[in-house]
Amino acid sequence: MKILGIESSCDETAAAVVEDGRTVKSNIIASSLEEHKLYGGVVPEIASRRHAESISGVVKEALMQADCTMDDIDAIAVTFAPGLIGALLVGVNFAKGLAAAADKPLVPVHHLRSHIASNYLTSDLEPPFLCLIVSGGHSHIVAVNSYTDYEIIGKTRDDAAGEALDKAGRTMGLPYPGGISIDKISKTGNSDAYAFPHPKVDGAPFDFSFSGLKTSVINTVHNAEQKGERINIPDLAASFQKNVVDCLISNLEKVSEKFGYNKIVLAGGVSANSLLRSKSEQLCRKHNRKLYLPELKYCGDNAAMVASQGYYEYLAGVRAESSLNAYATMPIDIVNF
């Protein structure tokens, strides 16, 4: 079964063809990242315009690279939530039109579910398992009971880990995306040079809070500037990144121990972070767990992961009508469309 996946939740316009949820036949991405770098972050209006300009060509290229036509496609899967609403609408409306024109089933896919599915593309992973989803907009610990059944065990109460990293990086004067820049420069820094708090959420031992950490690094930089002191950016970046990763790994370890999952999975853009991957490997060695990491090329937004999850949603009977809408927010465990 061949699924055409379409992704436009942020600044990547993507299309892919995936066979039986596992075999990637094509995976095309057109990114407007370089344009957003001029503004230090994603500008929603620019992202929407670039999606509108690129989506038709990206889909054609995905079909061509997969050596197939729409006649060979069994269903169209599209990201419909969550994300930038204007960006999502471009993908959703294009997918609806294409599904109607080609007389193909339309399968709505939740963005975080597809990030988890990125692990299906290069491994034999099957549910149930425990997944840490870390991105610019989300930080969740999720029990994946089946390909379409999810339970949120822990989540951030404020900023996502990726958002905190990006904003801290911008405060340090590093290039956008800040999280990637912090990861690179941290390799030459001393992670014990600066002390930061380890936030805890009262009454919710598995939840995260990163806003205080973000504020701490901002205050550290501003206070140094006011006093005319020099900040060692590699040390500051390494110290901040270590604290963020420690928060993530600490909660992940508590959940895995409490519920006894023997398969641990990472997903989302921040799953590409080298320290997070290393600490996850240490955690799984310590407790004799099996670790699944998405290939770096599938960590960021792409359509292959959408097509993969779309395959399993299709098998579960999920379909959308022409009235399908896009949604800026929607929990992973309760999907309405």
Walk me through this protein's architecture.
By secondary structure, the chain is α/β, with parallel strands linked by helices. The strands form two sheets. A five-stranded mixed beta sheet has the order 3-2-1-4-5, sandwiched between helices. It is globular and about 65 Å long.
Task: Name the poorly predicted regions.
Answer: none
Radius of gyration: 20 Å
Overall geometry: globular
Give the strand order of the largest sheet, numbering strands 1, 2, ... along the chain.
3-2-1-4-5
Distance between the termini: 24 Å
Number of strands: 10
Question: If helices are DSSP runs of H or I spanning 4 or more residues, what is the number of helices?
Answer: 10
Strand content: 15-25%
Please write the string of helix (H) and strand (E) elements: EEEHHEHEHEEEHHHHEHEH
Which secondary-structure class do the elements indicate?
alpha/beta
Question: What proportion of the residues is helical, as a percent range?
Answer: 40-55%
Summarize the main sheet: 5 strands, mixed
Mean pLDDT across all residues, rounded? 96
SSE layout and pairing:
Layout: E1 2-7, E2 12-19, E3 23-31, H1 33-37, H2 44-65, E4 75-81, H3 85-102, E5 106-110, H4 111-117, E6 129-134, E7 139-146, E8 149-155, H5 161-171, H6 178-186, H7 211-227, H8 233-259, E9 263-267, H9 274-287, E10 290-292, H10 304-315
Helix pairs in contact: 2-3, 4-10, 5-6, 5-7, 5-8, 6-8, 8-9
